[in-house]
Amino acid sequence: MSNTISTADGKRGYPLPLGPSILPEGINFAIFSRNAKQVELVIDVQEEGQERVRHSYPLQPGYNRTGDIWHILLPFHRQKISYGYRINGQSAPEESGTLFNDQNILIDPYAKMLTPRKWGERADYGQRPCCQFPDHSFNWQGDKPLKIPLEETIIYELHVRGFTRSPTSQTQYPGTYKAIIDKIPYLKSLGITAVELMPIAEFNENENPFTNPFTKEKLKDFWGYNSLNFFALKSGYAADSAHPLQEFKELVLALHQAGIEIFLDIVFNHTGEGDYNGPTTSFRGIDNPIYYLLDPESRQYMNFSGCGNTMNCNHPIVRELIRNVLRYWVIEMHVDGFRFDLASILGRDKQGNVLPDPPMLEVIAEDPILRDTKIIAEAWDAAGLYQVGSFSTDSRWSEWNGKFRDDVRSFFAGHENSVQKLATRIAGSSDLYQASSRGPSNSINLITSHDGFTLYDLVSYEQKYNEANGENNLDGENHNISWNSGVEGETSSTEINRLRLRRIKSMVLTLLLSQGVPMLTAGDEFGFSQKGNNNVWCQDNETAWLDWSLAEKNSDLLRFVQKCIALRKEHRVFQRTRFFSDIDAPGHPEITWQSLTPSTTDWSPTCHHLAFLLDGTKQQDSHFFIMLNGSRKNSVTFTLPHPPSDDPREIRKWYKIIDTAGQSPEDFTELDFATCLAGDSTLPVEPMAVVVLQAG
């Protein structure tokens, strides 16, 4: 590359919009920096068959600056260019928090694409111009948002690379967006309505300081919760890394054509720059005290994210950036929803205090472009702030319900004082959402997620085994609410393996028949294990790559999950938009709780069983009676109530359609072939099992 410095004069340009804009007379560049003294635009031009030529454009404060925006219009058109910024000013991190260094060539926060590279290839972020202009041309074939009602939504969380990277996936381009397209028939057969992709904004997977102590291999940032830029798509996830946008749009279109929405797990709470020891690639070098939360006295980074830095999300500049990012993914990429990682940080002010009415949350909820977009908060942060149920009073915001996760786990681990909590979660968590005039669908119910044990490991391990992560097993959650079913880890015991399978099926069934929006983690439906590692953020290997051979090996479990999803989708009684409110009203209550016999309840701490009747009359749906036994060892016998009926001459029967203790296919039986049971008859339920009756 030539070091030629161009003396060509650009025009003054325009301060808005931020980022690069292609105009008839050239390309306009605009970047915000309040505290900079000098800004220099650096452009590499790569003409076909020629060497790269570097052009440098110092922006004049009295000419190329409007307020805090630096801008220039240059007569570039069709050349293949990469650009970045050198920004200089006072570097006084302990005084003002500024950290300017004109040796860095910085990423424009509004760049829509970074230099494409394959997974694992060396990255030069911060060392050379790497912002590029994507080709957004694409035939969407009339694609439009599916707008699946939230109460009908079933979310499936997956990692783009880990989902198909294993050879067992039998895809042509494993670990890519294209490979997910190959798996769409599987996703349809499973029955989910939305995929939630773990972060796909560009990050540097090579920025991981840890080494596997067993193999001595340098570990990667596999998960990607360290964004370099919020607009730029991760090119390393593309089969053709030179054209990632085309491939991603093909994925979105194919999902929509299959009736499946796509959500993005998006990380605004911190960036990949980390603390002062981390790489300076963008925000820190552009205007550190604007983009990050700094302690007012020490000027050190406030670390509410657990990753070294925290974005200053309620600064107007950052708020506007976040809104534009979300609009871009909705308008240009056709995504249907977002899950906001550690979203409680979105509610902190510049001192780190929790705001009563955070502007950032209102900006997202009230934005007219995002009005039909699903918005889901992880309603806590890494500093102990836990806002499940109180994150926002706006009905637009749904939340990952960590209390649902914990209470279902407790019940099916045999813990005491869990029955009443479980009932509250099954009914939609009114204790969390009713006071703010929200409904059951504001609760995103989950038992597992990418963060923690898989469902198989939840019933197989009581301790985490993260030594391969290179942090002396100090990383990852210690409070897993898990029970190993009698033996730690793998076992040849038929009895224990049957118990584990029963518990998996019971928890999946409880998830899918509870009020609220269920979320499954990819691989749980066929018993995928991470061998007790509950924090595989750095495991780009078989530990975190889904083993698709399990879909065949554990086909009975997969069948059961498919059947349970289909049952939920078929019956409105499991998809309520309002809380149960007529328990004491005349007529049939829509839900009736029961202990072992009708008209009795037992909410005592030592109770380990629960039953409830769902009356589907008002929903014009079937009636269901569901019995759960959370005892580790003891079966319990329930006396069945009579199926609801307004006609005393009508004698209705119960049909046992599900028994998680049964062997396949008896664990899920079609109604026409199910065992018939009368009201007042008795039915035993085995330890850790769930039995479902449907009226007919």
What's the domain count? Answer: 3
Q: Provide the CATH architecture of the largest domain.
A: Alpha-Beta Barrel
Structural class: alpha/beta
Strand content range: 15-25%
The residue fraction in helices comes out at: 10-25%
User: Could you state the CATH homologous superfamily of the largest domain?
Assistant: Glycosidases
Our count of helices gives: 14
Largest sheet: 8 strands, parallel, barrel
Radius of gyration: 27 Å
Would you give an account of this structure?
The chain has 696 residues and is α/β, with parallel strands linked by helices. Helices cover 19% and strands 19% of the residues. It has 3 domains: 114 residues, Sandwich (Immunoglobulin-like), CATH 2.60.40; 422 residues, Glycosidases (TIM Barrel), CATH 3.20.20.80; 105 residues, Golgi alpha-mannosidase II (Immunoglobulin-like), CATH 2.60.40.1180. It contains 14 helices and 27 strands. The strands form 7 sheets. It has an 8-stranded parallel barrel. Helix 7 links the parallel strand 15 and strand 16. The longest helix is centred in the C-terminal third of the chain and has 20 residues.
Summed up, what is this model?
With 696 residues, the chain is an alpha/beta fold. It is 19% helix and 19% strand. The chain has 14 helices and 27 strands.
Brief descriptors of the model:
3 domains, Immunoglobulin-like, alpha/beta, TIM Barrel, 6-stranded antiparallel β-sheet
